[in-house]
Amino acid sequence: MKQWILTLIVMAQGAFAHAFVVESGFIQQASGQYVKSTSVTCDLKSAPQCRKLCQNPAVCVREEPYCRNCAGTTSPLLRQLFTELSRLYTIKNLVSDLSPLVQYMASQSYVLLGVDSVFNYYTPVGGDVFVNELKAFCGDSAPTAMLVVKLDPVHQPFELSYVLCRPTNGETVAFEVMPRQPTIGQRLLNTPIIFNLN
Amino acid sequence: MFFQGSIHKVIASVALVGVCGANAFAAPSNPDLQFNNLRITNRAQCAIDSDAPTDTALIVVDGYNAGKLANSLAKSVGADPEAMSVQGMQDFRIAVSRLTKNIMNKLFIGALPLLPLNLKTSKLKNYNAVAVKCEKKTYCPELNTYLAKLWDNSEGAGVPWDKLDNFTGASFVQLKKVDRVGCMYIKKFSGLQGHLHTTDLDVASLQDMAQAYLAQDQNVTSCEDRDASLDSRNSIIQMNLKVGEGDNFTNYGFDFWNSVKIYLSFAWRYSNIPAQVSPQMGQLFKSIAFEESVMMVPNGCKSIEKPSCDAETLSLNSIRELAKPGQNPTDSFRENPEGPDKGVINNGARSVNDDFLGTRSYKEASDWVENFRKNYVQNRGSLKSRLQSAIQFMNVLSGAMTSSQLTEFVRPLALASTYTNSHRDELYYLCTEARLAGDQRLDFMKTGIDKIKKMDVMQKAFEGSSKSLDELSNYFDSAATGVVSLCDNLERQNIWNVKGYTVDRDGFNSWAKEILNIPASNEVTPQFTPMAFGAPLLVWDTNKGNATNNVICMSGMDCARKMTKAMVDLYAVSKYADAFLPTSSTVASPDIFNPYADLKACKIYDPWFQTRRANKRLFADLTSTVLFGWNALPIYIDVDFTAPKVTSLKQLIEDGSVKFDPALTKSKMQYSILADFGPLVGAPCAVSIAPHSDKAFNFYAFNGISMNYCKTKTDGTAIGETSGNVDNKDPKSHSYCGGCSINFVGVASGAAMTSGYALPVNPIKLGIYFFRSIYRFVQAKKDKVNIPNSSDVNLQRVAETYQKFGFIPEYCVNQLGAGVGCYQNICAAKAADFFERYTGKKVQGLDYEGPKGNTDSITKSVRIRSALCDGDVRLSFNCNDDGKKFSTYDRFGGMYGLTKNCRDAIGQNFWGH
Q1: What is the DSSP letter of B666?
Q2: 20 to 30 A from B443, CA-CA: which of A159, B181, B466, B850?
Q3: A195 domain-assigned
Q4: The complex's ipTM?
Q5: pLDDT tens across B407-453, in order?
Q6: Do B279 and A31 touch (CB under 8 A)?
Q7: What is the pTM of this model?
């Protein structure tokens, strides 16, 4: 997981065309096995970030670790993310400085869940239900959004760390998220409240 | 020299036979298609067998998760979703089969050590330490690291075992290196699984088995068969372990299965076997929810896990009801399940091995699996959903306000100055529900809810929740106390006792309706809408106001009611948690084919009772014959014994799991007194009174024309005690019988003889009562259901017999039931079987020579023609007439070659030495 593979395959679009972009998809190994992988491409400005990941200033590719019991309906976290994301989570802040994100990506164990995620056993894969949930975070670029889910030491999904959006100009924008705190609604003044706030 | 050479030849051939074992006469072309003998048992034997480890199991494989994964993958990579999904399911089925087979073979040849079940007696220091660390968790990295070392060693890493842990010879099974695992895909349930639908061996069932064996291709195939017509969405794989009699499997069998399950879950994510089976999806398979897709079920009465009377066994085995044909409303689906212990007592004794799970009702085995999985997944989904909603709500509520704050939000709504009828209604619901679930004084559910936090399985279910089960349990405790005291206040004020007001009972939550027996109304009831007192009390996003899904609860009352519902849901889920929640790191192995596993473990059924009763009754009968049978008094006492009865299962929580302690009423002696008034009234009439038994006593020795009147009454009632236990009252039974009969011998008519001949003894009465004692004993021992009885059927022998005769002759039934072929008699059959196993050659003809010397000698002999040599071989052996005691001689197995060629083949000289 910590191995960022140096790849000599230059992206068709050109290595330095886009800024910092995180993408996820399946690659087929020489043996024929399909593996999910994350690729990060950098431009001149963001090259230092790629160097931190894999010493290559242009592109880094990494195989995702397996996600225990994710291809099924075992994980309550995945159920929440695919069905109630916008209700249960809210944006904490925009990640302006990429360094902590890059540090996370270099050192932690995580999976990326996109609109087409194979781990979605709750709503139609690629369908509108999940896209609508993602709109709360990424607006119109919801179809290319991704959730970064951290895994625990036994590879089970543990918590939602970031939401990655990819607006039309191509660069990945990251948001830190946090579970929503429900609020106690406004009380009518004529309803007496007697409670001790301590 | 010559002799030594011959002896070496014999030794070598014996060694070879020893290796080939039972397969010598027809080694299957595909080692996957090895059949074990079928063990036919009746109810009592099935119950006894539940304590022994099984040598055959069925793996139920649900390909849904694999298929959907493949389907979604195809969409991502631009492949054909339909084709990839079919391929994915097939690969999954084969990967599961191959990996299980691989692990079993590794265990058999000692490449992997046995992982002990009983940690108290385990000497493996490191394993014990890991187990302690991992106790409260479902998955645990330390265990994975430990198992990785063992697995790498099994693949040839070469680390000495004693460096990894205190492994000794006893930690390894060491059988000879032979493919010992049969692995078959079941196309149709047939005579090949005849033990599941046969309690008593007869011609028809043997014929069914023979035909099924001869038409094998239609019924089974290798588990790695890639034929596209085999259904991989729902499949059932039979694993047969070739463990012979001398292999002591009973000693290590439970450890064996424990090891298989642990290694299987580990190796699925670690080994490269899934990748070998599926060149495209093997890596992705590691992410499949494996334990939710696979189940391992004992194929018969013996077990994979030794049953005990606790929640884990009972709730897991309640899955059995879901395997029956059709859609069955089960206890686990109810709002307030009673729990598997109630089901076990209420269901009581039932039939077994008569295909009660309906495996033969479906054309294809996969149809049966489909029905089973559908019921199972539905039940599981409902319980998981209740659990996850409850955890989520309780976390949200307790995060937003403390329990005292919640009470304070309820207070102004409870103690208002005026109430509308809807307000009264909602308060009524609040108070009733809070009392049912949270009032310590009423203790309807409160103790049960309190116990949830002591259960390990529920602690594990809370992994991933920010607040622990204990915290949420305490939250509920204090909130409920606050609400209940407000309700006490309201009751004192009599707010519901208002003219013109009746509570609308439709607004109760469904769990309360079930308890209060409020029927569902005929029209579609509109969803109850909680009252609004200003803005909603708890919302997700203040900006969204009353939008759907934004409101968590409308008011303090609504929050309190939802909190109560959440706790009731947790309580309901806890009763079946072991069966349905993903809290185990290994696949489930419910004992679905043996309902007696639970009944015996909880002492509700005692398989030895009838045997002991027959013995005790014989003794009592003989005693009363001696005491009363000899005299002229027309009095006779009949004695019987009632079975000990379990009236309730008391729940105890020990070491984090719920165990059930059966409350037994002891076996009672019942007596009835018979007064035979024949000689007194001049007509053969008699009366019997049994004050404690409901037996109608038939007291006439020979049936003639009779008119009998018997009044029998059994009265038993069950009371629900407040603690929720069901207490069956001691059944009060009595019977009064009277009758007159024209019969051949009035039993006491011998009195006439005595008075005539002045004999002190009534010989007829004595004889008849003595005869009756023995007759009753013999009849009791013939009880087909409750006296343990088993047969052992070798499918190949049955098929050979069927082919030889074209049908199964009646006299063959006993012999085939002893696991041997069919010859003139059972002794000849056992001799032939021995010959084939010893020499590895098939018997072509056999003449039974009978006993040597006098006819009751047990030394007998047969003459056998076979492919071993030209001519006959005489085989001498010891065998009593019913074939139960069969033994052979050591020297050349008791064989003597009757021709020189045969003596050479055996390795004997001219004199047979």
Answers
A1: P
A2: B466
A3: no
A4: 0.88
A5: 999 998 888 888 888 899 999 999 999 999 988 888 888 888 988 99
A6: yes
A7: 0.85
State both tokens at A140.
């119109």
Relative to beta strand B685-690, strand B669-676 is antiparallel
Q: List B879's β-bridge partners, or say none.
A: B886
Q: Is residue A184 part of a domain?
A: no
What is chain B's Cα-based Rg? 35
Is residue B768 one of the residues assigned to a domain? yes
Nearest CA in chain B to A88: B540
Asked if residue B88 lies in contact with residue B82, where contact means CB atoms within 8 angstroms, the answer is: no
Q: Tell which residue, B342, B59, B5, B367, has the closest CA to residue B185.
A: B59
| B401 shares contact with chain A (CB less than 8 Å) | yes
Listed in sequence order, the residues at least 6 apart from A86 whose beta carbon sits closer than 8 Å to its beta carbon are A132, A133, A135, A136, A137
Rounded CA-CA distance B213/B191 in Å is: 7
Report the residue from B280, B399, B541 with minimal CB separation from A32: B280
In a domain, B188, yes or no: no
Per CB-CB distance under 8 Å, the chain B contacts of A156 are 139
Spatial CA neighbour of B608 closest among B789, B731, B730: B789
Residues of B in contact with A184 (CB under 8 A): 400-401, 537-538
> Is A16 a member of any domain?
yes
Is residue B374 in a domain?
A: no
Q: In this structure, are B70 and B148 located in the same domain?
A: yes
Of residues B31 and B61, more confidence is placed in: B61
**What's the total number of domains in chain B?**
4
Supply the range of the domain harboring residue B460. 384-580
Cβ contact, residue pair A87, B287, below 8 Å: no
First to last CA, chain A: 47
C-beta of residue B293 within 8 angstroms of C-beta of residue B66: yes
**pLDDT band, very low/low/confident/very high, at B912 (cuts 50, 70, 90):** low
Q: Which of B781, B807, B839 is the C-terminal boundary of a domain?
A: B781
Integer angstrom CA distances of residue B582 from B61, B144, B341, B588: 16, 18, 21, 10
pLDDT, tens digit, 9 for 90 and up, residues B239-293:
999 887 666 899 999 999 999 999 999 999 999 999 999 999 999 999 999 999 9
pLDDT exceeds cutoff 70 at B363: yes
Instruction: Say if A198 is an interface residue toward chain B (CB within 8 Å).
Output: no
Chain B residues within 8 A of A88 when measuring between CB atoms: 540
- Which of A112, A180, A183, A189 would you mutate first to test chain B, the one with the most B CBs within 10 A? A183
Residue with tokens 């409850």: B390
Q: Which of A97, A107, A113, A109 is nearest to A164 (CA)?
A: A113
Question: Chain A residue with minimal CA distance to B405?
Answer: A195
**Of the candidate ranges A6-15, A84-93, B567-576, the one whose mean pLDDT is the lowest:** A6-15
Residue A33, helix vs strand vs coil: coil
Residue-wise burial string across B395-434, b where 16 or more C-beta atoms lie within 10 A, e elsewhere: bbbbebbbbebbbbbbbbbbeeeebeeebbbbbbbbbbbb
Q: Are residues B281 and B391 located together in one domain of the fold?
A: no
- Our count of domains for chain A comes to 1
Pick the closest to residue B820 from B835, B811, B832 (CA basis).
B832
B560 and B460 co-located in one domain: yes
B771 and B855 part of one domain: no
> What's the domain range around A154?
5-179
How far is residue A34's CA from residue A27's CA, in Å, rounded to a whole number? 6
B326 backbone dihedrals φ, ψ, rounded to 5°? 85, -175
Q: How far apart are CA B317 and CA B852, in angstroms?
A: 54
Beta-carbon separation of B408 and A116 below 8 A: no
**Beta carbons of B696 and B738 less than 8 angstroms apart:** no
Inside any domain, residue A190: no
Segment 357-396 of chain B within 8 Å of chain A by CB: 381, 384, 388, 391-392, 396
Q: Please check whether residue A144 touches B, CB under 8 A.
A: no
| Out of A72, A79, A118, closest to residue B292 by CB | A72
